[in-house]
Amino acid sequence: MTSYVDSQQLAIMVRTKRGEAGLRQVAQEIGDISPSTLSRVENGKLPDMDTYLRLCDWLEVDPAHFFKNTSEADNPQLDTPDLIEVHLRADRELDQETATALATMVKAAYRAVRAGKIPQSS
User: Fold this and answer.
1) What is the mean pLDDT of the chain?
2) How far is CA 3 from CA 36, 58, 85, 120, in A?
3) In which residue ranges of the chain is CATH 1.10.260.40 found?
4) What is the enclosing helix (H) or strand (E) of 3?
5) CATH number, span 1-74
6) Angle CA 12–17–18, to nearest 5
7) 25-53 burial string, b = 16+ CB within 10 Å, else e?
8) Nearest to 100 by CA among 115, 113, 79, 81
9) What one-character-per-residue DSSP string does 31-97 give?
10) What is the DSSP letter of 20?
11) Which residues pair with residue 4 across a beta bridge?
12) For residues 47 and 51, what is the distance between their CA atoms, to the nearest angstrom?
């Protein structure tokens, strides 16, 4: 079994929490991290250990949260609607209000299909 750090999940969570705030502003908020390093993390690059731990503190997530093994790679922790919401919130083309509205619609439709209120096509 091979272990790895899920840098894509880290990138999505950082972009989502940063939202519309600027890189410089968030880098200062986190402390001891440069805007360019923050940008690299948002693009899926792994930071050094000190920066990684600072980011986890800022995200309020246990650092072990991002450690995965190959058997978990095909078994994401988020269910489909939540994963879609994370991606919508990370999309720079959408403002947060639009991302929230779209995520709400997706979740409502998903719940309706699962409850049998909307038939699934075969």
Assistant:
1) 86
2) 27, 24, 26, 37
3) 1-74
4) strand 3-5
5) 1.10.260.40
6) 100
7) ebbeebeebeeebbeebbeeebbeeebbe
8) 81
9) -S--HHHHHHHHTT----HHHHHHHHHHHT--GGGGEEEGGGTTS-SS-HHHHHHHHHHH-TTS-HH
10) T
11) 68
12) 6
Q: What does the alpha-carbon distance between residue 118 and residue 87 come to, in Å, rounded to a whole number?
A: 24
Tell me the pLDDT tens digit for each residue of 64-122. 988 988 765 554 566 788 778 777 877 778 887 888 889 889 988 888 888 888 888 76
Q: Which two tokens stand for residue 122?
A: 């075969």
59 to each of 18, 45, 70, 112, how far by Cα in Å?
10, 17, 24, 32
Helix axis angle, 80-90 to 7-18, nearest 10° = 60
- Amino acid at position 87, single letter: H
Q: Specify the pTM.
A: 0.62
